[in-house]
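Entry type: protein chain
Record version: 2
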Amino acid sequence: MNDPSTTELVTKSRLLRDFRALGIEAGMTLLIHSSLGSLGWVCGGPQAVIEALQETVGNRGTLVMPTHATHLTDPAGWQNPPVPESWWETIRDEMPVFDPALTTTRGMGVIPEAFRKGRGVRRSSHPQLSFAAWGEHRDAIVAAHSLSNGFGEDTPLGRLYDIGAYVLLLGVGHDSNTSLHLAEYRWTGARDRRTKVGCPMRVDGQRRWIDYEDLDHDAEDFATIGEVFEQIHEIKKGTVGEAEARLFSQPEIVDFAQRWMDTHR
């Protein structure tokens, strides 16, 4: 948590006011990417943020957050940090399989890690690229998450697109905007960008190391895509706590990003 001598006190009641001022309304479906540290000194930490979001969208609304477990991958590709090559086979043999309740997130921040364990939250089944959801559309969003097209059509991202969801960037930029990966699957070059992926899975009751194919995801141009999108499209910007926040249509940015990739990639 931030040093209280260098930041502001941010309470749940303030978060509620800031979310509403930004344009979040009851009944909305939100895909949220967040940084708790950007908000200031939050009284109640991630719990306060989650409760404020739930109260803002209400019982007819839906909240979704990425709960990726990128440590359930082939250790040969690990870079941050790498592990000795002499460990690789042991890790492949011993790494526990994905468990929606037990498997922690990695690199998602403390808000999604707290959210995934919350009352009424359900997590999708993808061993590496899961999302967690709460609210009206929870079950439809997390059902039957495609293994070999982890950010594609038969995934929470595809279902959020069909619902007409909104993206909330809370103290983070478009480089964290996972919806742009959905545009990658629709990009004309996607068919030439498949790669082998491995992870431990349970098959017929037995733990096995499984190799499968998925898109070789590339987020290098996401910040640029987001910057250009904001120059052309009207989005809602504001301050939540001390964080810069952005709210915009998920289908709108996915359609824009697909066209941008078709032209510039």
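Comment: The chain has a mean pLDDT of 96.
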